[in-house]
Amino acid sequence: MKQYPHTLEVFNAGQSYQDGNGDWVTPSGEWEIVSTCREQPNGKGETVNGEDGQAFVYQSLVFLPKGSVSVKNRDSVRVKDSGGVVRLDGIVKRISFDQLHTRIWV
């Protein structure tokens, strides 16, 4: 069994900029691969406190190798399996940089 069988991607919306006419242009954005991971759905409806201290029911808990993530709270993320099928699509609600791994609640 593989420890991190899934792939975590983050949506990069890009920076808005002004074109030659002075009009603001917003790029369409793209998904960027961030790390391998393991996604575990929250089948029991457990809660966790977010960065603001409010409790919420999370959709999934994503485990990543230690020090391998450049994800922030409120980022749009998705997790794909080895076949490229999307297992999870959501917003990061909390991140924990632990001793042996990183955890992300979505």
- Count the E strands: 11
Number of domains: 1
Radius of gyration: 16 Å
The rough form would be described as globular
**Low-confidence segments, ≥5 residues, pLDDT <50?**
none
Instruction: Report the order of strands and helices.
Output: EEEEEEEEEEE
Q: Provide the structure class.
A: mainly beta
Could you give a short account of the major beta sheet? 7 strands, antiparallel
Main sheet strand line-up? 9-8-1-4-7-11-10
**Mean pLDDT value:** 88
- Count of DSSP H/I helices: 0
User: Residue share in helices?
Assistant: under 10%
Say what oligomer this is. single chain
Features:
seven-stranded antiparallel sheet, 0% helix, 106 residues, two-stranded antiparallel ribbon, single chain, mainly beta, 52% strand, globular
